[in-house]
């Protein structure tokens, strides 16, 4: 891990892979930090990429301004970090909060972007998301950071993952508690108050975009990604089977495979951003890595034929 | 040097190995009581402020809470009889008191906006950065009065800090923004430095383990 002074802020980052290789940058979720991407970075480096992971402003060991930060500061800071690292262009993958930052980066710094992967994210606060955000904020400020963490685990992970990792969860929560500060997370959440919906500007994103949404993600559900799919001119939507919001943590091999195939297709110019909807194979080594979604991707019920069209009068 | 996760991990490992004995409890309480007392002293200085503002209920409530937590720790702690522990505790907590004494010169917070902002910044740093919950070993008895007190204090600190957050971020102050940011940074660094010294102290061997300090985490 290295530290750099970017715009007067101390930023912690890690670079994996050789200089000169295509760069992949990861943007973290709200309570995450750069360490989340260590395994991703090692595997992508083996596949011919250079990987940048960093603690965003307010996270981990990067600066945590007490007076607050604007949401747009994150994309600007990433652009300046890339300049500091003497890098012109990057692939960018962002999850959840980091996905919003990645979209903002694509809108305002699109010339520095190769491919954009937006995972479990959104361009504007839907009523459901806004109210959920209010609950999370209230939990953080009125009860505390451990309460927020306790809420996020069952919201973001499957029962199978929770059962398999139950013994590790206290240590994982403690690690997250140590590396995050309540006031810094609160600042990140309060920065959404000034969030202007990105939707009207999504048309400005011309480059390739891979949207990824967990099958059972009820935090940022399908409607958030459908809005993105409709507005982005050069995208595809891939649904991750059995996954909830934090599939980068729960299904890292499958996520990595989808990202790798996307970056490769952008780099060898075989990418087709036709707005189609795909389903990721449920094994990381499957061929093909994804197949076209055969049904109505907006529905959760497995309706067939005439039943699809029936509605109550 | 900044505060790192390893500082917590090393201290927690030492506590897990030795248990919450009298010497460990004393070390933790000496630091926590100092943090609470410094914040209470600052809040107490504005208890008799010349003008009652909308912030008064929060400030007054926090003053009472901090005094209450210092008293709670005094009750639940099994105090060590090792004089060296107290000497070292005084040395490690002195920088916290020094911060408060420096704020009062040349004018106290009720009379000077810079001193008022500095006091809020120091209170914020104390509530935000002095966190002992990550020191509790996983197998510790959560019903033990000392462990329960640490949890309770930590949770309440998260709530109390809302007063500092709102006043620092949204409160009107004639102090220029750059200067405010510098004050906040300096106070946080000062508290981090003191807290890191405390964590390193916890991680060091307890030189004279006592028979009455042998309560292992259950």
Report on the structure:
The complex is a heterodimer of chains A (313) and B (218). Chain A has 313 residues and is an alpha/beta fold. Chain A contains eleven helices and ten strands. Chain A has one domain: Alpha/Beta hydrolase fold, catalytic domain (Rossmann fold), CATH 3.40.50. The longest helix of chain A is centred in the middle third of the chain and has 17 residues. With 218 residues, chain B is an all-alpha fold. Chain B has a single domain, classed as Ferritin, CATH 1.20.1260. Chain B is 69% helix and 0% strand. Chain B has seven helices and no strands. Chains A and B meet through helix 4, helix 7 and helix 8 of A and helix 5, helix 6 and helix 7 of B.
Can you give me a brief rundown of this structure?
The complex is a heterodimer of chains A (313) and B (218). Chain A has 313 residues and is an alpha/beta fold.
Sketch the major β-sheet of chain A.
10 strands, mixed
- CATH topology (level 3) name of chain A: Rossmann fold
Helicity of chain A, as a percent range: 25-40%
Task: Tell me the Rg of chain A in angstroms.
Answer: 19 Å
Largest sheet of chain B: none
Which regions of chain B contain 5 or more consecutive residues with pLDDT less than 50? 208-218
The CATH top-level class label of chain B: Mainly Alpha
Report the principal-axis shape of chain A.
globular
Give the name of the CATH superfamily of chain A.
Alpha/Beta hydrolase fold, catalytic domain
Ends apart, CA distance between termini of chain B:
34 Å
Order of helices and strands of chain B: HHHHHHH
Please tag this protein with its features.
heterodimer; A: 313 residues; alpha/beta; Rossmann fold; ten-stranded mixed sheet; 10 strands; B: 218 residues; mainly alpha
What is the fold's blueprint, element by element?
The complex is a heterodimer of chains A (313) and B (218).
Chain A: E1 2-6, E2 9-16, E3 23-27, H1 38-46, E4 50-54, H2 71-84, E5 90-95, H3 97-108, E6 113-119, H4 127-143, H5 145-156, H6 159-164, H7 169-179, H8 182-190, E7 209-214, H9 222-231, E8 235-240, H10 247-250, H11 252-267, E9 274-280, E10 290-292
Parallel strand pairs in A: 3-4, 3-5, 5-6, 6-7, 7-8, 8-9
Antiparallel strand pairs in A: 1-2, 2-4, 9-10
Helix pairs in contact in A: 2-3, 4-5, 4-8, 5-7
Chain B: H1 5-18, H2 22-45, H3 56-76, H4 83-103, H5 113-129, H6 145-170, H7 177-203
Helix pairs in contact in B: 1-7, 2-3, 2-4, 2-5, 2-7, 3-6, 4-7, 5-6, 5-7
